[in-house]
Backbone:
């Protein structure tokens, strides 16, 4: 079972929330200011819960699209609760 940190999830969801239509956000830990392990754990957790409209995975590297309704709800839940 994955246990990502709340702040790592908020960082990824917030970055994806700013994407336009068909844009993809490459999840690079240094670019997002996260540890590699923290970023991978949070990304896997959020992808498994359908928080993004689309995603790509290639040899452990992820790219995500904008937030799905589930992703928006999870971001709101994490930032307010």
Residues:
């Amino acid at each position: 079972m994955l246990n990502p940190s709340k702040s790592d999830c908020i960082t990824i969801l917030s970055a994806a929330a700013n994407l336009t239509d068909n844009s993809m956000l490459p999840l690079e830990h240094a670019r997002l200011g996260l540890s590699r392990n923290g970023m991978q754990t949070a990304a896997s957790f959020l992808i498994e819960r359908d928080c993004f409209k689309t995603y790509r995975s290639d040899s452990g590297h992820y790219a995500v699209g904008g937030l799905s309704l589930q992703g928006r709800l999870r971001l709101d839940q994490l930032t307010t609760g």
Remarks:
- Residues 6-80 form a domain with the Arc Repressor Mutant, subunit A fold (CATH 1.10.10).
- The first strand starts at residue 25 and ends at 27.
- The two ends are 22 Å apart (CA to CA).
- The chain has a mean pLDDT of 93.
